[in-house]
């Protein structure tokens, strides 16, 4: 269970990006976080695995406080938090298998990591997870030779290799075409239920958020302004989250007109 | 397509000129004036002895005349000299490249804390500040004539060059891959091995090949001041007016540089 209480993040002396945010994620639910660019979605996810240092507040994963951890305690906690990124963030020049096994870096010794001598159990787990998402035949291919959807699968498997207690996905489908992004979303959804894993997904596509997740959290200006099931996420909620913000990306059906471009 | 909008009432005959490279006209014309003034001052005050130059020209002609045809008679000497130069260049490149990796990590602002960064930058600046010939003179004085001085000199020279460019490469890596490795719970060294080194690897190999090239050339030069290799042989040939042998050495150097350049280009293309 993830429990975020009164989370504040302020960059420098600017106005806080997160203003006292509270969020509780229980069991194996898939939660999507929607909101315009700059609402603080990404900062929220990065505070959880401490890629970003929270200014104040508390984040507890299964009763374990994550804020204020240092050194090896922090690294040991990060092992339990999987993360999938918008830009995949694979090690391009390494093979798919090395990328997948890099999910175990928190568990193996430096020498094992350097010489790629991962324990047999890790290799077995890697193959079975890769088979589950359909990329096992790419094991020895270089990661940058794969297509976008395949790369995001590698990234998902890498995160699952950590044996995570929660999975964070920071706009996992934003770099993918519509069909592939649906496949990735449904993959995340089914993996969550198979492994009874809570998943937090930042997403711009409200339609997909409705389709593939159990709960939608709406953010605006660093605060949570909607929290409910997809069926309750109506036009009012959408307006509250995106209203008054110029050209929300997902329903901008056609490119901006030349005059708007000039004024931007 | 959208810019081809005819409704905006475009007038024909509007003038367009490329904006000047330096916008401020005072600076623009001031720089030209300063350059001209400097050239005038330099040529009017430097002591060019035209008579001496005129006397030297026929002598230069004689040297080149004596160099034809190049003589490969003393092939044994040529071979020994080049062999030593190769050994110096290879060893120095290997040592220099190996040492430049940790120094480059130290000197990259995005992966090193400030005090370490400053130390790394200082090491690079020190090893870059003197031309290899000057360093060679110092090392010859310190460890005596011979290849040891040459190896030390070129190692330092390699560190200065490779570590600097490698550090810049590290500063430009895709940070997302590092973040991914941080997010799986990897420590500093594992992040370097997985998140950083694969990204700089092609550049690293390219630089090593280039440096081998460069060290081969430099090993001929540092030999002249007594640090071993073909340079010493070349110096002796000049000293004994064996211009034909000297020319043979020069031809060999050119040939070897050509071969090594082709080879390094091929390797760099392969690893990309």
Report on the structure:
The complex is a heterodimer of chains A (264) and B (272). Chain A has ten helices and ten strands. With 264 residues, chain A is an alpha/beta fold. In chain A, the strands form two sheets. Chain A has a six-stranded mixed β-sheet, sandwiched between helices. Chain B is mainly α and 272 residues long. Helix content of chain B is 76%, strand content 0%. Chain B is extended. The N terminus of chain B is likely disordered. Classes of the chains: A alpha/beta (264), B mainly alpha (272).
Keywords, separated by commas or semicolons:
heterodimer; A: 264 residues; alpha/beta; Rossmann fold; six-stranded mixed sheet; four-stranded antiparallel sheet; 36% helix; 20% strand; globular; B: 272 residues; mainly alpha; MetI-like fold; 2 domains; 0% strand; extended; disordered N terminus
Number of discrete domains of chain A: 1
**Number of helical runs of chain A?**
10
Helix content of chain A: 25-40%
Tell me the strand order in the biggest sheet of chain A: 6-7-8-3-9-10
Distance between the termini of chain B: 38 Å
| CATH superfamily caption of chain A | P-loop containing nucleotide triphosphate hydrolases
The N- and C-terminal alpha carbons of chain A lie at a distance of 43 Å
Q: Name the structural class of chain B.
A: mainly alpha
Task: Tally the beta strands of chain A.
Answer: 10
Give the overall average pLDDT of chain B: 86
Question: Could you name the CATH topology of chain A?
Answer: Rossmann fold
Number of DSSP-assigned strands of chain B: 0
CATH third-level topology of the largest domain in chain B: MetI-like fold
Q: Tell me the strand percentage band of chain A.
A: 15-25%
Basic shape of chain B: extended
- Give the CATH H-level superfamily of the largest domain in chain B: MetI-like
CATH C-level category of chain A: Alpha Beta
Structural class of chain A: alpha/beta
Largest interface (CB < 8 Å): A-B, 35 and 24 residues
């Amino acid at each position: 269970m993830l429990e975020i209480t009164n989370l504040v993040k302020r960059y420098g002396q600017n106005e806080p990006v997160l203003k006292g945010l509270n969020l509780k994620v229980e069991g194996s639910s898939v939660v999507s976080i929607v909101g315009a660019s700059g609402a603080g979605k990404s900062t929220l996810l990065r505070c959880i695995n401490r890629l970003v240092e929270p200014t104040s507040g508390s984040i507890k994963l299964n009763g374990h406080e994550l804020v204020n951890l240092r050194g090896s305690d922090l690294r040991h906690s990060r092992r339990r938090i999987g993360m999938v990124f918008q830009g995949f963030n694979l090690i391009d020049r390494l093979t798919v298998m090395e990328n997948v096994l890099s999910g175990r870096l928190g568990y193996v010794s430096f020498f094992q990591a350097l010489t790629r001598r991962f324990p047999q159990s890790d290799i077995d787990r890697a193959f079975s997870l890769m088979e589950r998402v359909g990329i096992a035949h790419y094991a020895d291919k270089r990661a940058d030779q794969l297509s976008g959807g395949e790369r995001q699968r590698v990234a998902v498997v890498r995160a699952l290799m950590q044996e995570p207690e929660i999975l964070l996905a920071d706009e996992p489908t934003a770099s993918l075409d519509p069909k592939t992004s649906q496949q990735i979303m449904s993959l995340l959804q089914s993996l969550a239920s198979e492994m009874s894993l809570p998943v937090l997904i930042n997403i711009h596509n409200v339609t997909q958020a409705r389709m593939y997740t159990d709960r939608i959290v709406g953010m605006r200006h660093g605060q949570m302004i909607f929290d409910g099931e997809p069926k309750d996420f109506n036009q009012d909620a959408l307006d509250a989250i995106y209203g008054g913000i110029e050209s929300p990306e997902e329903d901008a059906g056609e490119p901006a007109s030349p005059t708007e471009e000039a004024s931007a | 397509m959208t810019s081809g909008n005819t409704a905006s009432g475009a007038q024909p005959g509007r003038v367009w000129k490329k904006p000047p490279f330096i916008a401020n006209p005072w600076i623009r014309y001031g720089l030209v004036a300063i350059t001209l003034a400097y050239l005038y001052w330099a040529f009017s005050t430097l002591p060019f002895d035209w008579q001496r130059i005129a006397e030297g020209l026929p002598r230069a002609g004689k040297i080149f005349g004596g160099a034809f045809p190049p003589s490969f008679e003393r092939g044994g000497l040529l071979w020994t000299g080049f062999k030593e130069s190769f050994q110096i260049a290879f060893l120095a490149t290997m040592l220099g490249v190996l040492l430049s990796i940790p120094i480059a990590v130290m000197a990259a602002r995005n992966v090193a804390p400030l005090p370490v960064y400053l130390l790394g930058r200082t090491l690079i600046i020190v090893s870059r500040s003197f031309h290899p010939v000057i360093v060679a003179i110092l090392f010859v004085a310190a460890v005596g004539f011979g290849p040891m001085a040459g190896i030390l000199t070129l190692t330092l020279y390699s560190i200065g060059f490779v570590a600097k460019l490698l550090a810049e490469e590290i500063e430009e890596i895709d940070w997302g891959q590092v973040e991914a490795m941080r997010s799986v719970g990897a420590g500093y060294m594992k992040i370097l091995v997985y998140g950083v080194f694969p990204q700089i690897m092609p550049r690293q190999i390219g630089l090593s090949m280039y440096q081998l090239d460069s060290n081969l050339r430099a090993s001929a030069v540092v030999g002249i001041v007594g640090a071993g290799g073909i340079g010493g042989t070349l110096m002796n040939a000049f000293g004994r007016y064996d211009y034909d042998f000297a020319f043979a050495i020069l031809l060999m150097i050119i040939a070897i540089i050509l071969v090594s350049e082709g080879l390094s280009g091929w390797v760099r293309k392969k690893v990309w």
